[in-house]
């Protein structure tokens, strides 16, 4: 059954720090007309640079998903994209005056609240959807991500680490608004204490803290209030996967099964699905908004 496209009822803004860049940024999400898709505008550039939220514009997947065009980038888009997908936002303009989406608390929860505060309205045009009719997989050694035919969108994710506290976790959820809000949206990004110094040495995690990430040392979770869910780590990987696959630009119907996947494999799956299932781009034409 076809469903209608949706956008925000009114613009809404938020201000915060980027997890990796440490930059303070202001971001405003605007309603957009039907069949436009979601796109970012780097308003601090002269002239402003438009970057579609589409998998073919992904230029870096190191620890986050980064979109880029004409040597201008917007990084760590996955938490926002997950919230937009879960709430059914098909069309939106995201103005941002810096290089990275604000990390906020490291989850999608604040973005969910922000979008619901703006309100959601239906539009006249029907949504496009990729309905998986045969298995499709990306494999890299002992890591893989695949998608199988199913009656609804689901993600079954397994993580494994060589760590005393965090060895293996698995979780499986249908991806819809109710379940995403209740079970997935509050799960935070995480890292190991031993990795923090290295990340900062290569120019990453400059804005990271216990306020916006779960940090694990050799024996315990360092955050004063502990975890939000006992399996918060794998839930956050599901959150990231929703955001990364939202860059297909359409709704998905199929069951994703992932083992130790991350942004890079997620993006390779996304590109493969777009190539196999979409005969024309799902995102806006830059010419449609007056850009070359």
TrEMBL record:
Keyword Lipid metabolism: yes
HAMAP family, alphabetized: LpxC
Protein name: UDP-3-O-acyl-N-acetylglucosamine deacetylase
MF terms (GO), sorted A to Z: metal ion binding; UDP-3-O-acyl-N-acetylglucosamine deacetylase activity
Positions with a binding annotation for Zn(2+): 79, 236, 240
EC number(s) recorded for this UniProt protein: 3.5.1.108
GO cellular component annotations of the record: membrane
UniProtKB keywords: Hydrolase, Lipid A biosynthesis, Lipid biosynthesis, Lipid metabolism, Metal-binding, Zinc
Pfam families found in the cross-reference section: LpxC
Annotated gene: lpxC
Primary role: Catalyzes the hydrolysis of UDP-3-O-myristoyl-N-acetylglucosamine to form UDP-3-O-myristoylglucosamine and acetate, the committed step in lipid A biosynthesis.
Record pathway: Glycolipid biosynthesis; lipid IV(A) biosynthesis; lipid IV(A) from (3R)-3-hydroxytetradecanoyl-[acyl-carrier-protein] and UDP-N-acetyl-alpha-D-glucosamine: step 2/6
């Amino acid at each position: 059954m076809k469903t209608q496209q949706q956008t925000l009822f009114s613009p809404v803004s938020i201000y915060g720090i980027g997890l990796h860049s440490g930059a303070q940024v202001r971001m405003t999400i605007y309603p957009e007309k039907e069949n436009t898709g979601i796109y970012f505008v780097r308003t601090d550039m002269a002239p402003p640079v438009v970057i579609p939220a589409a998998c073919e514009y992904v230029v870096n997947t190191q620890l986050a998903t980064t979109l880029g065009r004409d040597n201008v980038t917007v990084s760590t888009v996955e938490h926002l994209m997950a919230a937009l997908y879960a709430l059914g936002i098909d069309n939106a303009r995201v103005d941002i005056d810096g290089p990275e989406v604000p990390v906020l608390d490291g989850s999608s929860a604040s973005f969910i609240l922000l979008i619901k505060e703006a309100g959601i309205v239906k539009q006249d045009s029907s949504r496009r959807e990729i309905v998986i009719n045969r298995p499709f997989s990306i494999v890299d050694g002992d890591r893989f991500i695949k998608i199988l035919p199913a009656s609804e969108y689901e993600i079954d994710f397994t993580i494994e680490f060589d760590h005393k506290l965090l060895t293996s976790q698995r979780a499986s959820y249908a991806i819809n608004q109710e379940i995403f809000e209740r079970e997935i949206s509050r799960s935070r990004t995480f890292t190991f204490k031993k990795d923090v110094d290295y990340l900062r040495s290569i120019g990453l995690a400059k804005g990271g803290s216990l306020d916006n990430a779960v940090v694990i040392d050799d024996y315990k979770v360092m955050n004063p209030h502990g975890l939000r869910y006992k399996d918060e780590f794998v839930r956050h990987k599901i959150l990231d996967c929703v955001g990364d696959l939202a860059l297909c630009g359409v709704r998905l119907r199929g069951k994703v099964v992932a083992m130790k996947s991350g942004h890079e494999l997620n993006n390779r799956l996304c590109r493969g699905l777009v190539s196999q299932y979409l005969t024309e781009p799902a995102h806006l034409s830059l010419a449609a908004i007056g850009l070359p």
